[in-house]
Design brief:
By secondary structure, the protein is an alpha/beta fold. Helices cover about 25% and strands about 20% of the residues. The chain is built from 10 helices and 14 strands.
Length: about 325
């Protein structure tokens, strides 16, 4: 079983993609304000996925997408954090480090700033492959990290602590797990705090959370996976109300719509279609709809191509698709 598991992990690594040019969207705010830096927008397996050998991204690097991850950079303290440890962790940590160094000082060339060995912490949402397997790079076979803080809910923390190969990271002190609790804030600096929010989604190995990321001026919501917005309604949480309280919302956009995967009944897929989300939020004012940035797009999702009619439809209805490299000031 361990041999099969190892083969699975290394097949995930084969999806690490390093050829996409980072396109930084326009941001507003002071250069000293903390900010979110989008590191990837694709579903767990990236784009193209293993086995999708007819996908155009294999021959067209512009269509390749890294797995979903966000970076958080605080220029004042020089600290950085990551949300998710995806299979593309190597490239994403490089991107985050380079971005952080470029904003560390206006008077210092980034070439003279030492490269950091690892982020200051990693926040995990759940135990599906695209969201945590990048932790393997922290082990002694690779980075050999030391006491890197990994933020995780109780079941996720137990999963890492008592199952190989992850427990070795704990045993060798590569990582130090800090347990989270629903709605209890984690204060990262004087003006940055992160709040985990339980969401309904497949829980084979752990509970699932999203995050509110609050800065001195603005707040970002990150929910890359959820079964449905109506399931959340049953728990007393309405997405419309949460959108009112944040400035930008990165939400589950795994599939654009029904029929996207030929020969499959998609009605039971545990993700809200982008079309479903847009229909539900259609009556919100334009300034509320514009907060939405769909993320976690499957390799079949046509909206990942900004020139597609589906991407155009999203834009015309007042919503957005996340872009790797975009910045949101906090």
């Amino acid at each position: 079983m361990m041999r099969l598991f190892s083969r699975f992990l290394f097949s995930c690594l084969a999806l690490s993609i390093s050829f996409i040019e980072i396109s930084v969207a326009q941001d507003t705010g002071s250069d000293e304000d903390p900010y979110i830096f989008v590191l990837g927008i694709s579903q767990d397996g990236g784009t193209p996925q293993a086995g999708s050998n007819d996908h155009p991204a294999w021959t067209d690097p512009s269509k390749r997408r890294l797995a979903t991850s966000l970076g958080l950079i605080d220029p004042r303290s020089g600290k950085t954090w990551m949300f998710e440890a995806s299979p593309d962790f190597r490239q994403q940590w490089y991107d985050l480090d380079m971005q952080s160094r470029s904003h560390s000082s206006q008077e210092t060339s980034r070439d003279t700033i030492p490269r950091r060995a690892a982020p200051d912490g990693i926040f995990l949402t759940h135990a599906h492959m695209g969201h945590y397997v990048g932790l393997m790079f922290l082990g002694h076979e690779s980075m050999g990290a030391s006491h890197l803080t990994v933020y995780a809910m109780e079941e996720m923390a137990d999963y890492l602590s008592y199952n190989g190969p992850w427990e070795q990271l704990v045993r060798y002190d590569n990582i130090a797990i800090r347990e989270l609790r629903h709605s209890v804030p984690v204060q990262l600096t004087d003006d940055i705090r992160v709040i985990p929010l339980l969401v309904p989604h497949r829980q084979e190995y752990s509970e699932v959370v999203g995050y509110r990321i609050e800065g001195p001026n603005r707040t970002v919501l990150f929910i890359p996976d959820i079964d449905s917005w109506s399931d959340w309604d049953l728990e007393g949480t309405r997405i419309e109300r949460i959108i009112e309280t944040v400035d930008v919302a990165y939400v589950d956009g795994t599939f654009f719509g029904d029929g996207e995967i030929p020969g499959r009944d998609m009605s039971t897929f545990p993700h809200p279609f982008i079309t479903t989300t847009m229909d539900r939020l259609a009556d919100l004012p334009e300034n509320q709809r514009s907060k939405i940035r769909f993320i976690h797009l499957n390799h079949t999702n046509p909206a990942s191509d900004p020139s597609s009619s589906e991407a155009q439809q999203i834009s015309e209805r007042g919503f957005n698709v996340a872009v790797r490299g975009e910045i949101t000031r906090l």
